[in-house]
């Protein structure tokens, strides 16, 4: 037995994921997502992030416990997913390793004074909106560490997200459980030698947009964007941790570690 009594099935709208969901229709007495104690997610990494954000919304309810998610890859890369297999799901859940993922919290203040607070499981990124280079002031724990960073943008990644956009921007891979965050510039121009920082995950990061009228910047928390920001504050949201389930032979921590040896 898995220990999970109420299973929910979430599937991407893509053809392969919908076909897989149809194959699993008789595998369990599926319940709605809000009633489940485990979720089976079918799709790619983008759909897994979408599902995890739904879990974050559920965690906002008083006394709500994290609901683990077991993903099966019906997408492209599937870094956050397990291999798709129709049979043996109950046995796989019983053997699965649990990994806790703590999201970031982004509080973005717009030029017009609007404030938006969003979670991010992979990364928070700031990106220039026009051909003009973005200019940012970077503060760490209320200390100005870079008075002016000229760049296309900057991102702050969790260990779980360090192999995604962060890696494409030449940022470091962070082992799961390292207790670190990656602060990585995107196409930095000045200062030329600054290539980013690895910071303890207790760090509070503040990014202020310099001259936002001439050099507008947008802020993105995973897949959700806020345009024309004046300042973005980033910290860990430890009140809403998430749980991912992986087959022991294909676990997330090992996968992140081995990414360092892929040519």
TrEMBL record:
InterPro entries: ATP-NAD_kinase_N, ATP-NAD_kinase_PpnK-typ_C, NAD/diacylglycerol_kinase_sf, NADK. Coiled coil: none annotated. NAD(+) binds at residues 45-46, 50, 122-123, 152, 160, 163-168. Keywords: ATP-binding, Cytoplasm, Kinase, NAD, NADP, Nucleotide-binding, Transferase. It catalyses: NAD(+) + ATP = ADP + NADP(+) + H(+). Pfam families: NAD_kinase_C (PF20143). GO terms for molecular function: kinase activity. Its EC number is 2.7.1.23. The active site is at 45 (proton acceptor). It is found in: Cytoplasm. Its cofactor is a divalent metal cation. Its main location: cytoplasm. The keyword Transmembrane does not apply. The keyword Chaperone does not apply. Belongs to the NAD kinase family. PANTHER family: NAD KINASE. NCBIfam families: PRK04761.1. Involved in the regulation of the intracellular balance of NAD and NADP, and is a key enzyme in the biosynthesis of NADP. Catalyzes specifically the phosphorylation on 2'-hydroxyl of the adenosine moiety of NAD to yield NADP. This is NAD kinase. It comes from Sphingomonas cynarae. The lineage of its organism: Bacteria, Pseudomonadati, Pseudomonadota, Alphaproteobacteria, Sphingomonadales.
């Amino acid at each position: 037995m898995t220990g999970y009594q109420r299973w929910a099935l979430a599937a991407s709208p893509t053809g392969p994921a919908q076909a897989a969901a149809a194959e699993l229709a008789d595998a369990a007495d599926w319940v709605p997502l809000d009633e489940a104690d485990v979720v089976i997610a079918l799709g790619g990494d983008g759909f897994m992030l979408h599902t995890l954000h739904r879990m974050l919304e559920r965690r906002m309810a008083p006394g709500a416990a994290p609901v683990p998610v077991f993903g099966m890859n019906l997408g492209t890369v599937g870094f956050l997913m397990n291999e798709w297999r129709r049979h043996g799901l109950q046995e796989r859940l019983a053997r699965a390793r649990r990994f806790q993922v703590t999201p970031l919290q982004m509080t973005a203040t717009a030029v017009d004074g609007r404030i938006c607070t969003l979670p991010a499981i992979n990364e928070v990124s700031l990106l220039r909106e026009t051909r003009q280079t973005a200019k940012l002031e970077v503060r760490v724990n209320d200390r100005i560490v870079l008075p002016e960073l000229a760049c296309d943008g900057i991102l702050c990644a969790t260990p779980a997200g360090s192999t995604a956009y962060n890696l494409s921007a030449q940022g470091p891979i962070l082992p799961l459980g390292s207790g670190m965050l990656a602060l990585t510039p995107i196409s930095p121009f000045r200062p030329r030698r600054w290539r980013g920082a690895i910071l303890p995950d207790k760090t509070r990061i503040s990014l202020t947009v310099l001259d936002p009228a001439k050099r507008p910047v947008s802020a993105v928390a995973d897949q959700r964007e806020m345009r024309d920001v004046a300042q973005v504050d980033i910290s860990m949201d430890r009140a809403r941790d998430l749980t991912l389930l992986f087959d022991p032979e294909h676990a997330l921590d090992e996968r992140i570690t081995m990414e360092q040896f892929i040519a």
